[in-house]
Each structure stands twice: as structure tokens, then as C-alpha cells.
Amino acid sequence: MKTQTFFSWIWRINGLIILLMALFLGALFVYEVGEDLLRERNEPNVPLNLAEDKDQEENWDLGYPVQLGEYDYFLIPLESEKLTVDATDLSMVEGFNRQRGPHKMYSSYRESRMKNAILVNASTNESRWLFDSVDQLIYRFDTLEQEGTPLSEQNQAIFYELINEDSNADQQLDYNDELIFALSRLDGSGYTEIISGYSELITQAVNKEGNLLIVYSRQEQVFSALIDLRDFKLLDKRALPKVGDQVSTR
Predict the structure, then answer these.
(1) 250-144-177 Cα angle (round to 5)
(2) Which of 39, 103, 144, 171 yields a CA-CA distance of 20 to 30 A from 21?
(3) pLDDT tens digit sequence for 81-114
């Protein structure tokens, strides 16, 4: 009887030791993981002298370089930890018409926003900034594709969805504002804003003639537009017909 009691106490003590060891190892694991996460979140960005920041509010970073199709052009985003753009003191960007208005790649854990982009020619080492300022948010960008037939380098383009006007008057540019659809060449030249003031790009495709068709929504209406990729001119724009209508209205 005493022997059974003795072994019973030994089993209890062993079980307690095993439990304490499991709790200790679990706490050690949680501590190590938490320390790594905290160290990563507290890791400061290296300041980059790429854009003027008069209020010393920004922390600039270059995002992941994206090769544009199969060509020797790369787009590198200029990103910021600041989630919005202050719209109280927006100036006109020289060379660009600020009208009414992402393959998306950002750096690791940081909440960043794309405020500009630099286009680099890997063959000549020439580079060009897309904008002359950081007073815009680039929501998405990508190259154009034509099904079955690759576009020539001369007709190839980058499309952008961006925001550069405080359409809801909340004193900042963010993703609650209306969008602008724009195009540029692979080297960033020829930047042209085509459609402004829409809320969603539904689809885009290059037709057999080499023109770009886009379908987008604005408030409660849906529109289609045809764009000449040779000179980025808007060829036609009209609202999609309602069910039962035979002809769409411009």
C-alpha cells in the first residue's frame, strides 16, 4: 500500500515537472517570436534624399522594382509610410494637367503608399521620374496586353490609376477619392490623363486595331471608352445601354 502511494506521488511530481517544462518552453517561444516582431516593427527606415519634405513628416523608401513586360525598362515605386497626402496645399505639377479625378507591390511589413515612380532603362541607364512632385497617390499600374499578338515597343504603354484631387473635400488624398486613368510610354514619357472622376475600372483590353478599350463606373453609371495608343487620344466615350435599349448614349 505504501509502495503504491510512493509511486503515485512520483508520477504526480513527474507530471508537474513535465507541465512546468512545457509552460516554460511555450513562454520562451512566445517571447522569442514577440521579440522578433517587435524588432522588425521598430526597425527604422534609412532616410532617402529623393523628395523634398518641407514638414519633415515623410519617411521615403524605394519599393520593389518591376520589369515592364519583356522590355529593358523597370518601374521603381517611391513609397511613404504616410497613408495620405495633405490636400490643403497642393500645387500644380509642371508639365501635367491636374484634372478632376497595382500588380501592386509594397515593401514587407510597412504600411506604405506609392507617391511617385522612377522609370529606368536597363540598356542605357537613363531614368525619369513620372511626376515632378509627391502630391498624388498611385493606386495601381501595369503594362498593356493584346491577346494573341504582343504589342510592339513603340505601341506599348503603362496604365495608371491614381488620385490627385480631393474629390470628397476631407482635406486629404486617399482611396476614398475619385480615380484618374492615365497612360505613359515605358520610359515614363508622354504621360497623359485620359479619364477622370471614376470610381472603379472594370476591365481593359487592347483590340485588333491596337486601340485600348476600357470599361469603368462613375457613380451609378457604367461607361466604355476607346483610346488610340499611338498618341493617347480619346477616340470615343459613351455610357453602356440599359437592358432593352438598342443604342448607347454618349
Answers:
(1) 60
(2) 39
(3) 765 565 554 433 322 222 333 333 333 333 458 8
Look at residues 47, 68, 50 and name the one whose alpha carbon lies nearest to residue 122: 68
**Angstrom distance (rounded) from CA 86 to CA 174:** 9
pTM higher than the cut 0.90 = no
Residue appearing with cell numbers 495608371: 160
Per-residue model confidence as pLDDT tens digits over 186-239: 999 999 999 999 999 999 999 888 899 999 999 889 999 999 999 999 999 999
* CA-closest candidate to residue 187, choices 129, 105, 144: 129
CA distances from 166 to 49, 87, 139, 230 (A): 27, 6, 15, 31
Q: How far is CA 131 from CA 90, 142, 178, 204, in A?
A: 14, 17, 19, 24
